[in-house]
Amino acid sequence: MLEILRHTPLWVYFIFTMILYLGISSCFKQRLKSKSIFHLSGAFLVLSIYNLLMKNDLFLIGILSWSGGLAIATGVAYYFILKKKYQFSLEGEYLVIPGSPSILLVSLFFFAVKFWFGYTVAIKPELSSIPIYVILDKLCSGLVVGFFSGRSIALYLIGKCLFIEKRDVKNDVR
Fold first, then answer.
1. Structural domains of the chain, count
2. Bridge partners of 95?
3. pLDDT tens-digit readout, 97-128
4. DSSP code per residue over 112-140
5. Backbone torsions φ then ψ of 54, nearest 5 degrees
6. At what angle are helices 131-173 and 39-53 packed, to 10 degrees?
7. By residue range, what is the domain housing residue 73?
8. Is 90 a residue whose pLDDT tops 90?
9. What is the mean pLDDT of residues 164-170?
10. Would you give the DSSP letter of residue 99?
11. 18-40 burial by CB neighbour count: b if 16+ within 10 A, else e?
12. What spatial distance separates the first Cα and last Cα of the chain, rounded to whole Å?
């Protein structure tokens, strides 16, 4: 185990630290502008597309797996955010989001899974040409991006609805 940690690149520790920071901060109430809702999902999207476009003999299988994971997780996250009984509110132009450990848990789970995929390919590079391995790896990447994209889209729409509702209430008072 210590050998694995010793040979892990520094950028992996940096990403792990960022995941911990963002995950722990999401456990508490946050105030976000509507544009900043997409920062986390955008970062995961860029990293995932970079991973997807890396040289791979099974590119089409990878794209299909990634797209499937993206679609499934986006829909599921979107559905659960909209159906959950969160108490959202607006403070000026900020959307106030209640804290939840879901981002921390999902991020750590997917970090562990992707770390395992990276470790196994580093030990046995021939795994990257096995279809089931590529399918699972790209599906995992798509699920991560989909979870954060679905969450971002749902929060953005909730914020827009609250803003429109608040604007309509102001207009009715006049």
1. 1
2. 32, 90
3. 888 898 899 889 999 998 998 889 888 989 88
4. HHHHHHHHHHHH-GGGGGSHHHHHHHHHH
5. -60, 150
6. 160
7. 2-173
8. no
9. 69
10. -
11. ebeeebeebeeebebeeeebbeb
12. 67
